[in-house]
Amino acid sequence: MQGASASEYLWICTEGVPGFSRIPKECSGIHITSKKAYMIMRRLLSKIAICGILILWAPLVDVVSAAKDTTEIVFLTWKPNQPEVWNKLIQQFHEKHPHITVKRQVCPHSSTEYHAIITQRLKNRDVSVDVFLMDVVWPPEFANAGWALDLSSRFPEAEQEKFLAGPISAGIYHEKIYGVPCYMAAGLFYYRKDLLEKYHFDPPATWAEMIEQGNIILSDHKNPGMVIYSAQFKQYEGLVCNMLEFLRSNGGEILDQKTGQVLLDQAPALEAISFVRDHIIGKAAPRGVVTYEEPESLSLFTQGKTIFHRNWPYAWAVANDPEKSTVSGKVGVGSLPAFEGHDHAATLGGWHFGINAFSIHQEAAWQFIQFMASKESQKTLALKAGLAPTRKSVYEDPVIQQKMPHLIAFLPSLKKAVSRPLSPIYPMISQELQRFFSAAIVHENEALPSMAHASAVRLKKLLELEAMIAK
Amino acid sequence: MTHKDRFFFLLLLPAAALLMLFIVIPVGQSFFLSFHRVISGLPQLGEAMVGLENYRNLLHDDVARHSLWITVIFVGVTTFFELLIGLFLALLMHRRFPGRGALRAAVLIPWAIPTVVAAQMWRFLMNDAYGMINYLAFGTKIDCYIPWLAYPATALGAIILADIWKTASFAALLILAGLQVIPREIHQAGLVDGAGTWRRFRHITWPLIRPAVMVALLFRTIDAFRVFDLAYVLTQGGPADATNVLQLYGYKKMFVEGWMGYGSAISVCIFMLALFLAIIYVRAVGRHLLEARV
Amino acid sequence: MTGVVLAVGFSLAPFFFFVLSAFKTERQITAIPPVWLPDFSLISFQSAVFKHHLFHYLLNSLIVAGSATLVSLSLGTLAGYALWVGVKSAVDCFVLR
């Protein structure tokens, strides 16, 4: 066998192999010799090899072309509602910084899916991401895990002062800052200005007042399928935002950030949740809100089927767009109602820019972030995409004040917005809260205090986990 | 090793290598991970080996127990109705009539549609404001419309209905294969003896297609146990975890919350349960399958 | 015959309605009573192809499906042959015993 090549060896192996000379009944007439079978197999294997090379070619080409003069940074983002605006900003950046190329990788629109994708990559110390976006509740998680770069040296307090306090504090973990606020959001109260004017009502200051006004309007209006209130009560992150607004507007809280004590099963929280369960779900709001995220609840409002609505600032533009909304021009906006004797509450939302701690282009990434968070970029995002800016100076800009007076009207609520619990294990806390709140509002007949207590116990266990890393 | 053996070994090698890479190694890693405590958001805790702690926690996890119960209900109801409807469809497709090919193609379309698309479609049909189901039930009386996905029972019913719609035709295919093996002479003999349709079905058709039905049962039970995308797209776990099937719970624990070790334990449990079911089926039914064929 | 109608209706009706909605404008999709004869507007297709890069995703699907089929078919054919001839007797023994 010495000197025999691989192919000859293969051919020899097929010699006298049963099955090749034995003709199966079904294919009589086809006589396959062992050599023929070997030739067929060789051709097949070579075809596989060619296809394999072709499939691998594409990423190889990518890698090769990346070795150029310019620094290329990767911006991992979710799918925006107005991609043209973001495209334009990136183009402007390219003009200003010709030696830096920004390559965008677009993930699904959903915040949860984006979180899953980005955490998987950063967990594996992926160097191929440079700049990413962080939801307002992620900086503690990303900072603690060492995924986000500490920006304290590049983003000193003097610069931080130029931004609104709420978003900045959401980006801080253990006195270091990890995110530059891109845009912000807060829970706002939308209402049908025309209907309230017709009945000479002021926008309601309490939830009870809202239901009262709603009942009067509905009994008079006689519009089938019309309801009083619509918001987001599906079992997802938005439920926590909505319920937190109810809780806090009754003086309740989920947990005390300073002491770490869980307050979910205390009286103010329980009262607020009972109110939602007994008076909102299925009564003031249709039962279907248990399946609504922002788009569905907003469409109820834009089709004129609800009087009051809770949503983020982006809903203003949609509700006033005559092509998408039947109530365009009849929309009023203000702060959410509260419970008797308490102040209104709004949950903080929004997104921050962050730099991957494992990135090898940190300086270029920082320049990109500086551009995207500059006054001009925030102004463009506000004017063209309706995203509320985080820089104080943008709100004082005359163009903004003239073209977007509602944004100035949002400012008090935006300034008062409070974040959800800040914790490196917020995803776990959020899942537990979503589970509890959804069960509380869906299973109306189950005793609330025991459910709340069981949930509080589970939350305490999670917080113990967090305490373990503090040591 | 003879030349023959070497040849067969070479032929098996690429497929075996692929199996190793895509099945054995990941499953093995899942097993391995399930014995550790790995939390992706808290890398400071490291990857401590905790033995059976994850499994012990799983036993006491109320949500996991609820998820298992939901999955069992799902498997039971869908399998029963899919086999029933599949049997009916197979009997229908077995007769010779013009347009039989078109009927087969039409019946197979639900199975051919990607599950994600089918789930979105059913979500659309179940909509509480403009869904077709509501319109067919209540006409234009919009205030009578029911938000099907907002009640725990009907949300589970919705994913069951979507699954039945989608895979009844697959069960029909499997049963049809069994039907086509039955020689026509037996039926004709039955007719000659004066047996009616039901008699013929009960005493001739049913015993002979039982193996095929068992195969369909096996496939569908194991597939239904692993349901994920239907629940994920249609209800995302449903109102108050009403459609939180086990696989979805495992996904949420692992990728959303970051409990890599615990999520792996859940996946291993699903794997074990499915394997256990498969072994029981093949043991109990395997002999019948071969006796009928021989 | 009723069986056939039922079967076809059960299988195709939801899908048919879905396909019909592809040709409706957003207003018509959410309209009650449902619009049975839409304008046949191609606006959804336009949006899918140009705004949401449908062809890019189709290409991805093609690549995945194509390569998966190719690889599994070729390797499976080889392995299947080896198992059939080389191990057939062993399988017979295992199953029948």
- Please report the two chains with the greatest interface, counting residues with C-beta closer than 8 angstroms to the partner's C-beta: A-B, 46 and 38 residues
Number of domains of chain C: 2
Query: Mind summarizing the main beta sheet of chain B?
Result: 2 strands, antiparallel
CA(first)-CA(last) distance of chain C: 46 Å
Question: What series of H and E elements makes up the topology of chain C?
Answer: HHHH
Please state the overall shape of chain B, judged from the principal axes of the Cα atoms: globular
Order of helices and strands of chain B: HEEHHHHHHHHHHH
Class by SSE composition of chain B: mainly alpha
Question: Features of this protein?
Answer:
heterotrimer; B: 294 residues; mainly alpha; MetI-like fold; 12 helices; 2 strands; 75% helix; globular; C: 97 residues; 2 domains; 78% helix; 0% strand; flat
How would you briefly describe this protein structure?
Chain B has 294 residues and is mainly alpha-helical. Chain B contains twelve helices and two strands; from the N terminus they run H-E-E-H-H-H-H-H-H-H-H-H-H-H.
Annotate the secondary structure layout.
The complex is a heterotrimer of chains A (471), B (294) and C (97).
Chain A: H1 6-13, H2 34-66, E1 71-78, H3 83-96, E2 100-107, H4 111-123, E3 131-135, H5 139-145, H6 157-160, H7 165-170, E4 172-173, E5 176-177, E6 180-186, E7 188-192, H8 193-198, H9 207-221, E8 227-230, H10 237-248, H11 267-280, H12 294-302, E9 306-311, H13 314-319, E10 331-334, E11 348-355, H14 362-372, H15 375-385, H16 392-395, H17 398-403, H18 405-416, H19 426-442, H20 448-470
Parallel strand pairs in A: 1-2, 1-3, 8-9
Antiparallel strand pairs in A: 3-11, 4-5, 6-11, 7-9, 7-10
Chain B: H1 3-34, E1 36-37, E2 48-49, H2 53-60, H3 62-94, H4 100-112, H5 115-125, H6 132-138, H7 152-179, H8 184-192, H9 197-225, H10 229-234, H11 246-256, H12 260-293
Antiparallel strand pairs in B: 1-2
Helix pairs in contact in B: 1-12, 2-12, 3-7, 3-9, 4-7, 5-7, 7-9, 9-12, 11-12
Chain C: H1 2-21, H2 26-29, H3 43-51, H4 54-96
